[in-house]
Amino acid sequence: MSTERPHSVSVAGVVIDGQGRALLVQRRDNAKWEPPGGILEREETIPEALQREVLEETGIKIAGAPVLTGVYKNMTGLIVSLVFRCEAADGTPSTGSETRALRWATREEVTELADEAYAIRVLDALNSPDGTSPPAIRAHDGVKLI
Predict the structure, then answer these.
(1) In the prediction, which pLDDT does 114 show?
(2) Cα 111 from chain centroid?
């Protein structure tokens, strides 16, 4: 058995609007743009964590069954992230305690705003509108794909 620190598991929701734009959050701690999400808490399921994180960071409640669009491993941070394409059910976009700003971003804007490791998560979700594509499996160093 390894004595190294175990991996963390996180979820992120790529919320898509009717114009095909994705909702990005700008984090308060590092000012980086990315889809809303965070680490699972011990007692919650993956769907519960996804619903909680998106609501906390954006004020948006997600609808129905989200579609898994990618699995991403941060090789330096030891975080495995499950990313889902989501639709908004209710709420008005608003910042929370962890978010500095929100923005509906086009595909092109996503690549300009977000680091490659986070932009690809949004692009993978945008590329899987009907959920029939297999989830992407990628690794990164926290900024760039590996």
Answers:
(1) 97
(2) 14
